[in-house]
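Predict the structure of Dicarboxylate transport domain-containing protein.
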Amino acid sequence: MLALRRAPGLYGAAAGLVLFLLAGVAVAADAEAEFDGGIQLDLRIESLLRDDLDAHGLRTRVQWTREGLSLAIRADRVELPEPIGALQDLRVECSDLQVSRAEVRCDTARLWGDAGDLHLRGAPVGLYWGRETGALALAGAWPGWFGAQGDFQVRLDPARGWDVRADFAGINLAALAGSARLPMDLPVHLGQGTADLALHWRERGRSEVTLTVHDLAFSDDLGLQAGEELDGWLRLAGDADGWDVDLALTAGVVFVDPWFVDLDAEGPLTLDARGVVVDGESRAVRAGSLSLDYGEAASLQGQGLAFAPERGLDGQFRGEVGALGVIYETVLSPWLVGTALGELDAAGRMTGEVEVQASEPHYARLEWSGVEAQDRRGRFGVSGAQGELDWSATVPGGPGRIGFDAAHLYGLPFDGFSARVRARPQGLELLEATEIPILDGGLRVRAFSVQQTETGPDVQFQGGIRAISLESLTGVLGWPRFSGQVAGMIPRVRLEDGDLNVDGRLLVQVFDGEVVLRDVYIHDLFGYAPELGLSTQIQRLDLELVTRAFDIGRIQGRLSGHVNDLVMVDWSPVHMDLELMTPMDDPGRRRISQRAVENITELGGGLQAAASSIFLRVFENFSYRRLGFRCELRGDVCTASGVADRPDGGFVLVQGGGLPQIEVIGYNRRVDWPELIDRLATIQGGEGPVVQ
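Done. Here is the predicted structure for Dicarboxylate transport domain-containing protein.
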């Protein structure tokens, strides 16, 4: 708005020159009016310097006859303030100059001139000078520069100052942006678009300006900012005591890296600010109120806003999100790319308020309901989330609550729960023990807290798993169904620098035996390649139950062992030391079926079943003394061994005992792990050998 305080452009400067000369004309006209004959007055001035006006080669002719006064003014060169600059061959003609003791005026004056890319070709204007009051006025039609049509009016009242009105339609924005006279460098290129301007500026009073834009297109050199088919408007109204600002984008699409907004699909973006005051020297800004709306998706209101470069932002804000999915896609997801929350389908409602001091939050309150968030990669999801939190930067907040109707984590389902929590200045804590139902069991949470540190969130957890049936769990996860349960105490869970570490042990009671999990950790849990690490101790699994569950043939006996230093990347093993053996102290029956022998042989690829062909055809079951398998997995290669080594370099997987006797021998100690898993899947799918 400071630009409006300068001379009102080419017309204003030309009017100043004309009205300055009219004062001398009026004196000459009054002196000569008593003569009956015609009078002609010629005046030549080599140069004239007045305020912002520098004119050279001025020539003036005033003619007075009984029909009236006429005036012609020429100037070889006139220097006007930027952005007009030099004007060549200025000519002003008035055929009906009216002069009295009170005023001088010409209602039908015309202007000619050449400013390089801007030209005047007899543009009509009206001129007025109040000789007694000192008032000036200039009015006329816009000469069509930059494709615009309209009219303007410039007035000067010594008591009230300047008053400028203008109404222009059809301004070609690309042409205007390409003009060297534009007093600023635009950060983007304007490809197309038109604008309408309605201006009423008062030097001493309330001013208004409305700029309406149609079908605007813009872009920058790097492609980080672009817009197409944009419609909108900007309205400013006010004075030195404060300005009201109204801004709206009503149609089109906008991309400002990293955000993309489709106004046609989601509704207009509007901004209303009241009482805006800008200090040009300190660059401080104040506003009494602010309102921002994005269609029906979200709204934000602010009160008592103030910004200063040395302090930052102060104010109170209240917002509402009516369509979380829209806000997630347009506002949040570009910030979250590459994080666990970067690929979501979201919905729900949220409301909140925040008090900001020196650009830092001081107090906040948040409520949400019906929130849905589903990871597009299927890693996790939550439905029907609701809650409320009260937070302060200095003291613990009031009691709040969080909960959901259902959730899942890597296929593991969680039923609905609700918990009382409290927000702290740097984190969140659970106020009372709770349980999250999981199938027929649950996750018991005795203590939970999260604290923000310099290196990231520090999560503390204490609780345990109430017995979950493996039959229902394996069915949900799509594994072979088998009975048993998983339970255990979890004395502590820590999340530090993106790594999840579980202290304590989990007991899995399965296949009439036990599997104890320890040293569990997960690195980059929700990343693109999460890493799981653990070790297990396996005690006396019933092989008949195991082989029945995995459908590879019947084996009777027990199995013990361990899996040490298991590392899985993106849930595929890349490192482990595996050992599964018949316990030496197992007194039970040890039998293996012909089908199991054939499938184990097929599974191993390089394995061989050593037995009489008559035995293989006649007997359905065989005795064995011991069976076992060892694997040192490094990458995709498993270095294999069994219960005993052979002089010929082979190794025994199934060692025969009694009659009829059977042995399964391996000779290939380097096994391709992915191929081994594929063979197991083939056997379970029924495509392997079937021996009755």
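Residues 499 and 523 are 4 Å apart (CA to CA).
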